[in-house]
Amino acid sequence: MQLSFTKMQGAGNDFVVIDATRQPFELGPAQLRRLGDRRFGVGCDQVLVVEASTEPGIDFRYRIFNGADGAEVEHCGNGARCFVRFVRDKGLTEKDVVRVRTVNAVLTLALAADGRVRVDMGPPVFEAARVPYVPPALPGDEPLLNDVAVLSMGNPHAVLRVVDVDTAPVETLGPRIQALPAFPQGVNVGFVQVLDRGHARIRVYERGAGETLACGTGTCAAVVAGIRAGWFDAAVEVQARGGLLRIEWDGQGSVFMTGPAETVFDGVIQL
Ligand SMILES: N[C@H](CCC[C@H](N)C(=O)O)C(=O)O
């Protein structure tokens, strides 16, 4: 089958975006992995699917699949910014602010005049069962989890503070933490370097993708963990390897993320 797609990126986190508003989305895991494959397919961190909505007050449905394993996941923050850029540029809406439903949340996405996009990422969740996270029976039972903050941004995150992200053991510690029984549905592992109360650097070893150049939900999770720990004020500029994200959280409501969203090319693939 021939599949039309648009390649997009948000702070270097890259996506294959599929317009499924006019025909049902029917790709299986093997086809999704092919889309994500950087040798045998298009190559992307995640596949984003735009579906029509019949729900009052909801403009679109937003589905996310990790490129490496084809698994459907709950949220993708950088993808959300590309989503609104896509639906606007493809004429699927005239709105600059759209509301979209994911598998477990409703997000508000707003195109700004400077081309950046501001996303209401919803509130963080700390209740272990909703992450999901199974804490060790006793603190210290699992040394890898000492000093790790665990929370959900709709998807699961583990956050560690490091002195320097460039020397952090991302490629080794990331997968080791992901493999722990404490995370029954896996986890995205963030490594955050605090520069000052309004600035940070980050690297994220993502579930189902490995290290990406940026992770929107992971950056939100790191800032939330840092605000709770007293490291940050309510607004933080975070430098990822692929670009700069601005995260705001008042300590109780939604987390807001502002950053870039760009189209790279349109294409057709034979699946
Ligand atoms: N790998 C993530 C999904 C993509 C998240 C990331 N690309 C973002 O921008 O939030 C997960 O399995 O939960």
From TrEMBL:
Site keyed Could be important to modulate the pK values of the two catalytic cysteine residues: positions: H157, E206
Any single GO BP term: lysine biosynthetic process via diaminopimelate
Subcellular location: Cytoplasm
Location of the active site: C76 (proton donor), C215 (proton acceptor)
Highest rank taxon of the organism: Bacteria
Main location: cytoplasm
Binding site for substrate: N13, Q46, N66, G77, N78, N155, N188, E206, R207, G216, T217
Molecular function as annotated in GO: diaminopimelate epimerase activity
Alphabetical keyword list: Amino-acid biosynthesis, Cytoplasm, Isomerase, Lysine biosynthesis
InterPro entries referenced in this protein's UniProt entry, alphabetically: DAP_epimerase_DapF
GO cellular component, one term: cytosol
Similarity remark: Belongs to the diaminopimelate epimerase family.
Matching HAMAP family: DAP_epimerase
Function text: Catalyzes the stereoinversion of LL-2,6-diaminopimelate (L,L-DAP) to meso-diaminopimelate (meso-DAP), a precursor of L-lysine and an essential component of the bacterial peptidoglycan.
Protein known as: Diaminopimelate epimerase
Species of provenance: Inhella crocodyli
Biological classification of the source: Bacteria, Pseudomonadati, Pseudomonadota, Betaproteobacteria, Burkholderiales
